[in-house]
Structure formats: structure tokens, C-alpha cells
Amino acid sequence: MSVSRPGDPRQVGPYRIVGRLGAGGMGQVLLGRSPSGRTVAVKVIHPAMAEDDDFRARFRREITAARAVGGVYTAPVVDADPDASPPWLATTFLRGMSLQDAVAAHGPLPPPAVRALGAALAEALRSVHGAGIVHRDLKPSNVMLTPEGPRVIDFGIARPSEATTLTRTGATLGTPAYMSPEQASGQPAGPPSDVFSLGAVLTYAATGVGPFGQGAVHELVYRVIHLPPYLDGVPDPGLRALIAACMEKDPARRPTPERLLEHLSAEPAPAPQGTHWLPPPVAHDVARRGEATVPSGPGRRTVLALAAGGALAAMAAGGASLLFFLRDDDPLRWTYRLPEDVYVRSRLVATGDTVLTFGSQGLAGQTFAIDAETGEERWRGRFTVDRGSSAALFEGRGFVYDQASGELLTAFDLATGRTLWTEQLKTSGLTPRPAAGTGVVCMTGFERTGEYGLYGYDAATGRPLWRYRSDELTQTRAVLAGTTCWFGTRRGFVYAVDVTTGNARWQKRTGAAVLTDPILAGDVLAVITADGSVRGLDPATGRERWRTELGDGAATDAREGAPATIAGGVVFVDGLNGFLYAVDAATGRLRWKKKAGTEADKRTLREVSRPAVSGGLAVVTDEDWITAFDLATGATRWERHVERGRSEPPLISGSLVYYGTGRGMHVFDLHTGRTRHYHEFSRVLGSVEHYTELDGTVYCVADRAVHALRFTE
After folding, report:
1. What's CA 687's distance to the chain center, in Å?
2. Cβ contacts of residue 52 below 8 Å, gap of 6+?
3. Known binding residues
4. Catalytic residue among 79, 101, 137, 285
5. 37, 198, 445, 670: which one has the fewest Cβ atoms less than 10 Å from its Cβ?
């Protein structure tokens, strides 16, 4: 979503326009708000098309048909005026992320999630076809993953299937990589055409690429019409056969949505409601974006215009912080200056329309909530997070733990900063971080008697619910997904605890101390142990699926809590021997191990950061180098020398890679490594650090101030 542009309408029908969602061949899609506060997506038809009487007739019939579409998995039409100038229609505004963005950011979905998605799309098509509509442009960007479940969107090019005046121009519509052969060849496209597109969408969900690859439009059209789809990358044989049936060249041989639902329900799969059916990283991202609010006032350009070109400076509440508005063409959108003696403790958290900054003033905690759009202070709280820790967010609340301020677990209201409750828990020598979900907050710690364990608290009231005793804990933290919380111990046990009861679901002894947080990705729980092994466990049963010996001191010499992560279906382990290890999460096969930097650098023990993964690349930093490795082979795609920073992991947003150093923020092209931008701050004490990203804007800390940067891709 972006701010409104000059020339955008301020009002469409009863809806006040507060932002822009996108544009296409038929017009533009705007974000509107009704007089009662309801948020909708408003599609405004291009004036040139609106002048065509035949088009108005088609559009009027489309609205009538679209209003007849029901079902859980579609975005309903809520209002329209085909006779307005220009014509428009409004649909429910869905918060979340598209399937295209989710797979690009987190990699392919596991087979159970693809099956669940397939059932939702089949049910959506049943509703669409039942209203006499053919969608004609079902593709990954038109499937939204929302906190309530998947939804099919964009009926703006859908046409009632029985109307000849509506199929006359409809045959040219669609996206080549996902359209059916009959659509690509200009033939009439009925409901089976959407089934073909559904198969193509499921291929993308399961493999990360479309069934006909990439290329020029004419190349894709040829492949769609004449060549079989490439489905070898679909890991599940039954799912592969189902997709192949959907993508038969002959429309008559394709299954109906009803038949698809029968096949998909024959094997157990999670119901596609909410986000529990998605891998935890995707579910978290969808939930985070689902929390986002929409603007209610003028956009950034309006504010800056009121500031007479960017010279406005206003004192924030309390007088301790200074807020600057800068030129609209400057990547530095705003600066929020913290009080002189406040230090930021952990990475910034951008959630919804707020940037949370966790700091300390002496031993006292200080948290600042800053408006992500304007840089204005919203509230301050007298709590913070422990160094190296982070906040857990759940249902409008935040949960933080700080040893210095009395060993307190604190819950606060995200909207107001009001402290909701506190509970004391000892964690000396550990790395405390709360985990929240399913109405419960979990954290590892110990009582004054010295008994270690996992503690569960009621998220709403802070009331202690249960304690699960364990052996001695390491400097690792618990991980929560659904109703299960996993954690590891010094004696090598991995525990899975039901957070609704506090009882163990399973425990697994690995034989060596668990050195990292359990890492969950789909149907694999990975742990790294002190004997230099990476183990892949079944998160439901604890059964060991695979074990890989890294050797070379990768884990045996590593500190507790050594960096490790899963991204793109790969477990990455950063050993203190200077190697980055890439282990296939599904099989445990060591794909590659690499060092960054020059040949001289590679002969020394230089620790690499956790990688940022996107576009088939794993990007890491190694003191004064930033390197992009091929995700599949480990080959070095590019590397650049930079001045030293705080060795924070790089950050990827879209096609840009961000890395903060001792003087400024470097911005590189993800695919080539070419420097795209560099923003130097006037003075930096230490390094540019604690950076995070939200909707294309990067927020960072430099010189005891929080800055918002936005660069063009």
C-alpha cells in the first residue's frame, strides 16, 4: 500500500480515499473508508473504458454476478455504482499477504499446507462458478493469505460465462504463466480454465516457481499451449498427480472443483482456517501484516507540503525528543531523537503502523512507540527488554522480560503502552525471551529453589497457569507455535509441552547439550547440539528424522545460543570456525559450507552472521565483507567490501539488501551486488544498528536516534 498520488480522487461514492493499493489495465485500486469506519478496496474504472457503452453493460452485469458469489474463501463485493463517472466497485479489504509474496519471502509450502490451500481454492471456485462467473486470472498474487484464512481476490476481470458480449474481450485477459491453453489461444474459457490455473497456482505454492517457468510472453504462451507443465519439483506424488489432472490440455479431462474437494479431503490435511495450517514463519508474517492499520489522515506528501518543503521541527511530548520532517525526495523520512541518556537495547520492532524502540535509562527501562509514517511519539512505557532478547506480540498485547528492572515479565497494551500486568521469574545466566500464542505466554526460567523449567502464564491476566520442570537450561529460548512449546536443555533433552495443560507431549534426549533455540519450519524441528550435530525432529512426536555431523568444530566450540536459522528450506548454522553450513531441512543433507571474505580472511576464524534469504540467495556479513551465496550450491554470486558494523545480519526487502555500518546505511542490489544507495549520517556513535523493515521503509538506530529510510528499488 502507498499514499495517495496527486490526481487520485479524495472521495469515491460514500468512501473517503486514504491510500492507493495498485493499478492495472482496467483502472486503479484505492483504499477507502466508509463513514462508519469500514475499510474497503475500491476499484475505479479507467475513464477511457468507462466511455464505452458496451463496457458499462459488461461491468453492470459483472457487479450483479459478483454480488451473488458467496463462500468463505472469496472477497465479497460490498458496494458498487456502474453508472457513476467513473464506474466503481468496492470489495472487502483483506489484510495479510499474497501467496506470491509469502512464497517469495519464505520458500515453498509443505505438502499438507498445499493441500489445505488447494481445498480452499477449490471451494472458492465452486462459489465463483456457482454464480455463473469465470475468474480468468487466478494466480499467486490474486490469492491472499489472511489471519482468517486464504481468500481469492480480484474479480475485476471476471466475466459471466454464459454472456457472449462478456467473452468477446475476456479471452485476451489473464496472466500468461497461469492461464489455460484455451485462454492463451483465444478460445472461449469456461470453468475448466480456472481449474487449470488452480493447478498452476498449487505448483507455485509447492515449488516456488510456475509450471511453465519464466520468459517472454510469447514463450510462455507457446509452452502453455504445446508443452506439458513441469511438475518434477512437487515433492508429494499424490499432490503431483492431482495437479497434473488439473492441468490437462483438454478442458473436458480436468476435474471439477467438487471432484477436487473429494480428492483433497481423502487424505488428512489441516483445515485452511486462520493461519495454523501455514508454516510458523509464514503464519507469523501473515499475522503481523494482519495487525497493520490503515491511514486515517493525509499521506506523507500532504504532511510535508504543510511543512513548507521540509523545514518543520516540532518538539515531541515531554520536550526530550526532537522530531524532524525532511524533503520528500530524501530517503531519510524522519528522525526521532531519543533522550540524551537512553540507549537502545535490541532490534526495533515494526508492527502495524508503529515502531517499538526498547531502551534503558540507567537501570530503568524505557520503551518508545513511534508512528511509523510520521515519526511522532505515540506513548512511552517504563519497561523494556533484556539485552539480546525481544518482545512477543499477541492479540494487541506485547510481552517483554528484563532482568535489570527486577526480573519482571511485563505485559503491555500495544495501542496505549499501559502496563497490564507483571510477574517475577528468575533467569540469571539465561537468555530470556517470552513466547506468546493461544492465550498463553511461555518462558524458560527457574525458581529461587533453583528448579529449572518452562512457565506458562495467562496472556490476559498474567495468572500463573502451570510449570513444567526440566533439567538445567542453556542460554537458549523456547519456541511456540499453535498449542506446542519446544525448548532444549544442557543435558541434551528437547521437550515439547502442550501450552493448554502444561503437560509434556514428548521429550527426546539427543545426548549432547542443545546449543540453539529449536528452529521450526513446516514439519521439521531442527536443533544443534554440542557434539557438532544438527538433528531434524518431527515436531509432533519428537522422532529423529535425520542427523548430520557438521564436524570441524562447528558447534562444539560455539557459544550457547549460537546463530542458527531456517530459511528457504535450509538450516543455516554459523560456526565459530568461520564456516556457514547449509543443511537441507527435509533430508538433512549438507548442501554446502562456505567462508566469506578474501583468501586471507578465510584462513582466519571470522564469524559470519545469520543469513538473510531471498531470490535464491543467502546473504551474510563477515566483519567487513557482505557476500551472497547461491542457496542451492553455495557458489559465491557476489561479494562487496564494507566498513565494519556491529555484525548484525543484513536485511532484504524486495530487490534491495540493507546493511548498517560505522558511518551509514549501505543498500545493494540483491541479484548483482551493485551499490544502489548509500546514506551517510552526519555523525554515528558506534554503528548504524537495530534495523528492521515494514512495507518498504527501513527503520534503524544511529547516534541515539531512530531514523526512517525509504529508497527506490
Report:
1. 27
2. none
3. 43
4. 137
5. 37
Note whether residue 166 is domain-resident: yes
Instruction: Note whether residue 686 is domain-resident.
Output: no
Cα–Cα distance for residue pair 206/243, rounded to 1 Å: 10
Q: Closest Cα to residue 108, out of 569, 537, 521?
A: 569
CATH number at residue 84: 3.30.200.20
* CATH number of the CATH domain containing 576: 2.40.10.480
> In 208-312, which residue ranges form alpha helices assigned H by DSSP?
217-226, 237-246, 257-266, 280-290, 300-306
* Nearest of 600, 629, 603, 598 to residue 616 by alpha carbon: 629
Chain centre distance of CA 525: 20
Distance CA 481, CA 498 (A): 10
Among 79, 74, 99, 101, CA closest to 90 = 79
Residues 280 and 182 occupy one common structural domain: yes
Averaged over successive runs of 10 residues, the pLDDT of the chain (713 residues) comes to: 61 89 73 83 79 76 74 80 87 88 90 94 90 87 90 60 32 68 89 96 94 81 91 91 96 95 79 87 83 46 30 30 38 89 88 91 86 94 84 92 82 95 81 87 80 92 94 83 92 94 95 85 86 91 93 51 72 77 91 68 56 90 85 91 76 91 86 86 69 91 90 76
Q: Domain range holding 198?
A: 95-294
How buried is 581 (Cβ within 10 angstroms: 0-12 exposed, 13-18 middle, 19+ buried)?
A: buried
C-alpha torsion 335→8→174→109, nearest 10: 30
Quote the pLDDT of residue 677. 86
Question: b/e for 474-501, b at 16 or more Cβ within 10 A?
Answer: bbbbbbbbbbbbbbbbbbbbbbbbbbee
Question: Would you list which residues are annotated within the binding site for ATP?
Answer: 43
Max Cα distance, the chain (Å): 81
Least Cα distance to 262 among 118, 124, 151, 149 occurs for 118
Place of cell 510462455: 220
On whether both 57 and 177 belong to a single domain, the answer is no
DSSP per-residue letters across 514-578: B-S--EEETTEEEEEETTTEEEEE-TTT--EEEEEE--TTTTTTSPTT--EEEETTEEEEE-TTS
Cα–Cα–Cα angle for 214, 220, 223, nearest 5°? 115
285-to-72, 147, 178, 439, 611 alpha-carbon distances in Å = 22, 10, 25, 19, 18
* 691, HSE (Cβ side, Cα atoms, 13 Å): 32
Q: What is the pLDDT of residue 600?
A: 39
Does the annotation count 695 as an active-site position? no
Residue 320: Cβ-neighbour burial (10 angstroms; 0-12, 13-18, 19+) = middle
Q: Is 278 exposed, middle or buried (0-12, 13-18, 19+ CB in 10 A)?
A: buried
Is 81 in the same domain as 128?
A: no
Q: How many CB atoms lie within 10 A of CB 462?
A: 17
Per-residue confidence (pLDDT) for residue 709, from 0 to 100: 93
Where is 114: in which H helix or E strand? helix 111-130
> What is 160-184 written as a DSSP string?
ETT-HHHHHHHTT-S-GGG--HHHH
Grid cell locating 358: 526498547
Q: Is residue 370 part of a domain?
A: no
**Residue 7: what pLDDT?**
63
pLDDT at 64: 78
- CB contact set of 158 (below 8 Å; sequence gap of 6+): 62, 65, 66, 128, 133, 134, 135, 136, 137
Please report the pLDDT score of residue 476 as a whole number: 76
As given in the structure block, the three cell numbers for residue 152 are: 481469492
Query: How much is the pLDDT for 554?
Result: 59
pLDDT, position 563:
53
Radius of gyration of the chain from its Cα atoms, rounded to whole angstroms: 26
Predicted local confidence at residue 73, as pLDDT: 81
Dihedral, 312, 321, 296, 275 alpha carbons, nearest 10:
140
202-228 burial, b if ≥16 CB within 10 A, otherwise e? bbbbbbbebbbeeeeeeebbebbeeee
